[in-house]
User: Fold this.
Amino acid sequence: LEKFGGKMGGGPKIKIVGRVSPENKKEIKSWLFDYFGEQHLTHLPEEKREKLKSLEYPKNEDELLIIDFADKKVSELMKESGVNPHRVPPDNLHILPPDIYADLAKGVKNSGASTFPEYQTIIFNVDAIRGGNKLKFAIIVFHELMHLKGHLAFEAEEREFENKEG
Assistant:
């Protein structure tokens, strides 16, 4: 599958645990796989998604090189550990102004980055990663990719919902 980096293992193996039918586990996996590429922001309301896209800082050449290097190194560690490696597209990493970052990171203003495994997304606070040394950014990217790539089990539970209208 091209969106998973093809040669690096064909994509992650996601485990769904919990009291849910095999059919629903399959549906949940399909839903999660949609976030391993261009669909990773679809969980956001349209207004927030557009705001994020319009205010996001473009990644510079050094940042793209660091992201690529860290992604490859984390994949190597996964492979050595017997875990199917997969690529995280650079487009799934977003460098944001502090106020947008705090809004999406649920009010956490002072951290450098936050990871959302269920959406295959990492967001960065521009104030925490730019203007300093590149090693700090590299450490943060590596750290967050370890979180993102290492979290491939999700718990699901089937529930019945009552129709309150009728």
